[in-house]
Amino acid sequence: MYSGLKVLLCDDSLMIIKKMGDMLRSLGVGVVQTALDGEQAVRLFKLSKPDCVFLDQVMPNKTGLEALKEIISYHSDAIVFMLSSMGTIAKRDEAERLGARGFLQKPVSADDIKTVLELVIAELEDKTGKDLFKE
To answer: Helix, strand or coil for residue 97?
Structure first.
């Protein structure tokens, strides 16, 4: 069901990249790209225009919020979900004010990811009026 989705996963923790990448692939996501810092995240977003971005809040070179600002300024309809192991209401509110669609607390479960993917598919299909990801 998710084989047509292209996801960008951004986190400076290789363990999180591996765990979430494995979960995304086990759910059948077609393309999973990864970035280890905010600068890479922005660069990969501009190159590949993924359907969805999971963006860690705390990363080197450019924070998640800085990367979010840049991604949203490049593409205002970007679907970005922030990740954090130490999320606060203030940080969540700031991320949502900047354009994030949601905020996930780490560790993220497969059910959390599946819920996000369902929201992404619904939004993309609503924009186009087509069943884009039916197999």
So the answer is: helix
CATH number at residue 106: 3.40.50.2300
- For residues 132 and 78, which has the higher predicted lDDT (pLDDT)? 78
What are the DSSP calls for 99-119, one per residue?
T-SEEEESSPPHHHHHHHHHH
DSSP code at position 60: S
Q: Is residue 74 part of a domain?
A: yes
Q: What is the pLDDT of residues 35-71, one digit of tens each?
A: 999 999 999 999 999 999 999 999 999 999 999 999 9
CA distance 64 to 67: 5
Which residues contact residue 103 at a Cβ distance below 8 angstroms, ignoring those fewer than 6 apart? 81, 82, 83, 84, 87, 91, 92, 95, 96
CA atoms within 13 A on the CB side of 36: 4
